[in-house]
Amino acid sequence: MTDARGNARPNGGAPARHTPGTPCWVSLTAHGLEATEEFYGGLFGWEFRPGPRQLGPYVRALLDGHEVAGVGVLPPDRDLPVAWTPYFASDDVDRTADAMRSCGGTVGVGPLDAADAGRLVIGSDPSGAVFGVRQAAASPGTAVTGVPGTPAWNELTTFEASGVAKFYTAVFGYDEKPAASAGPDRVTLRLNGRPVAGVHGAGRALLRGRGPHWTTYFTVTDTADAVGRVLRLGGRVLAPPHDGDHGRVTLVADPQGARLALLQGPR
């Protein structure tokens, strides 16, 4: 599928800068670091090193020495879900935060400075789906894509696609286009003609689940093999492998309940 990370290089070179509006980072909030590192280290081969202290207990996940994701610990006094959160690049986080508010979104955390991670804000769109915005400093964000164990795509599941897509279009300047999928109520967000993220309207089916949310897709070599590793490491399969718009995909959950999709690209 088309790389959704602006200047990121599929062959592993670190980008100097992510084009504003492109996904630039993903971060997991979990109950503890040790069990999380064990699961994702076994699944993707990640190694971990400490991250910015401003974010509390936090580590960066590395693949072959390149940063690919972050993992933080949920505050014990807050009832928040264990979940992956995508971050979108911005040249001015404060201005983007203002745009989020003026377009009906909510700013929950920040803007705040986080050492070499840059300036961050975490908020939600009008439907309640949580996402982040990142203005890079020394660390540009996800430094490698297109290889197993790296983020490949982000998709928002919400009640109705077109209305929420207009929020992201207003905040980040995207173009909207009906998704290639034959399924109903799907929109692809594009930037400079390239796919950036997907929006899927699920209607009342969301009432049976966790509400509007973003899902991050990670590249794997083979979904069947990856599913076996998920199960051996204590995770769960939420949707069996099936063919989608971008390849063969399966939805899984880690042992603490965080959902993620595993994507095997076309061969």
From TrEMBL:
| InterPro entries in UniProt | Anthracycline_SecMetBiosynth (IPR052164), Glyas_Bleomycin-R_OHBP_Dase (IPR029068), Glyoxalase_6 (IPR041581), VOC_core (IPR037523)
Which residues does the annotated region (Disordered) include?
1-21
- Residues in the signal sequence: none
**What SUPFAM superfamilies does the record point to?**
Glyoxalase/Bleomycin resistance protein/Dihydroxybiphenyl dioxygenase
Give the highest taxon in the source lineage: Bacteria
* One Pfam family recorded for the sequence: Glyoxalase_6
CDD domains attached to this UniProt entry: SgaA_N_like
Give residue ranges for domain VOC: 22-136, 150-265
Protein name, entry field:
VOC family protein
* Organism in which the protein naturally occurs: Streptomyces pimonensis
